[in-house]
Prior knowledge:
Mean pLDDT: 81
Number of domains: 2
Order of helices and strands: HHHEHEEEEHH
Shape: elongated
CATH topology of the largest domain: Alpha-Beta Plaits
Largest sheet: 3 strands, antiparallel
CATH class of the largest domain: Alpha Beta
Number of helices: 6
Amino acid sequence: MINEVKAAWPWMGNVVEAVVTVGHGMWVTLRTGIKTYRPERKTFTEHFEYPELPVPVAARYRGFHRFDLTTCIACDQCAKACPVDCIYIGKSRVENGKGFKITGYTIDYTKCMFCALCVEPCPVDCIFMGATHDLSCYSRDGCIVDFSRLPLDVAWGRATLNPTAVADSKVITEPVHGGPNQ
């Protein structure tokens, strides 16, 4: 029948073929949906209670960084290893001593691809990947995290990185502390 319609009106044959193809695709989708329907299956938020309880993550999950400001020696190895240049380290020389003190340690999460290449070259293991997977923000400025301005528990890696702490750290004009060498 389709060939007869195509011969009479070629455009009408295309319309009929399109309707038949879409109908067949919808039938396949409906048939698969009926086969796989399970009423006991919950939605994601019912299963994990996401905002209240954290989602379980694998042991090797690479989430937002944890940074221990007390052990960092400002060697720039993590910034050099980063393939997308999203780590910015501010440092100044320590008077009457050797080494540097950290004045700023910033990670731009709009660039970061969570590859964990910054973790390996660190000689004192002060940066590592955490299990936090949600750092929601409404602007790009909220995705730039300066670990030296965060509250001490978050900056030293004792608490998880959260959007509230990041937003509060943007209001502070002076860093919370002068770094580990003061």
